[in-house]
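As a warm-up, study this chain.
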Amino acid sequence: MSFYQLHTTQKLPSTMHEVWDFISSPKNLKEITPRHMGFEITSKTGDDKMYPGMIISYKVSPLLGLKLDWVTEITHVAANEYFVDEQRIGPYKMWHHQHKIEPIEGGVLMTDIVTYQPPFGVFGRIANSLIIKNQLKRIFDYRTRVLEERFGKYVI
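Now compare it with the structure written out below.
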């Protein structure tokens, strides 16, 4: 059983409250997802803040413009600290995404740890080497740029 991890960090010149307010709202997911992925929330999450047990469903086109259903559950939340989303239905055999924020001098350190397992055994491992890991990196690079535009660039 092969699984993989993507670990990213980003420093933002903002307050814990401002960053948490943004990242803990499902309505902001579309803003931090590249447009070409056609991200669209299909559940009625409204302006709710994330809470344990929350189910969020959406359509997304991760590859070749094919629309897929993806359903995640918010399994853990500690307000102004972290939350975890886990895939219930979607393109991965397993998906576990930890979002954590902590105060640092002059701002906030945001850490993401995505642990995932592609489907299809050996073919999934090949797809990860050739496509998936690079695509995930590009998605998080996009998110980094969007958050810098929103909160500013961290400089100390």
